[in-house]
Write a structure and sequence with these properties.
alpha+beta, 3-stranded antiparallel sheet, two-stranded antiparallel sheet, 5 strands, elongated, RVT_2
Length: 107
């Protein structure tokens, strides 16, 4: 089984057979300009760490970057981020246009 993940100009090749993985990398390098960055550490804001038998993924760096950007890095944590049944606005009110909020929540 070979996994090939591509996002814009980033690519991950995963395969349990190292020789076949290298052969695939050579074929791709013959067709495309490529640079091998070694063992995967970050991809799309996801940090990758390895132990002997496991792979761990975390979005810690991504979350810290969001907290820095919104100047919330030193804030206290809360089990519930907003009071229950909180009304932001009436149903008749116009939608809020806030590009920073939309980008942060992935809209």
């Amino acid at each position: 089984l070979t996994l090939l993940l591509v996002y814009v100009d980033d690519m991950i090749i995963a395969r349990d057979d190292e020789a076949k993985k290298l052969a695939l990398k050579e074929k791709l390098a013959a067709q495309f300009e490529m640079k091998d960055l070694g063992k995967l550490k970050y991809f799309l804001g996801i940090e990758v760490a390895y132990s002997k038998n496991r792979i761990f993924i975390s979005q810690r760096k991504y979350v810290l970057d969001l907290l820095k950007e919104t100047r919330k890095l030193g804030c206290r944590t809360s089990t519930v981020p907003i009071e229950q049944n909180h009304r932001i606005g009436s149903e008749e009110s116009a939608p809020v246009e806030n590009p920073q909020y939309q980008r942060l929540v992935g809209n």
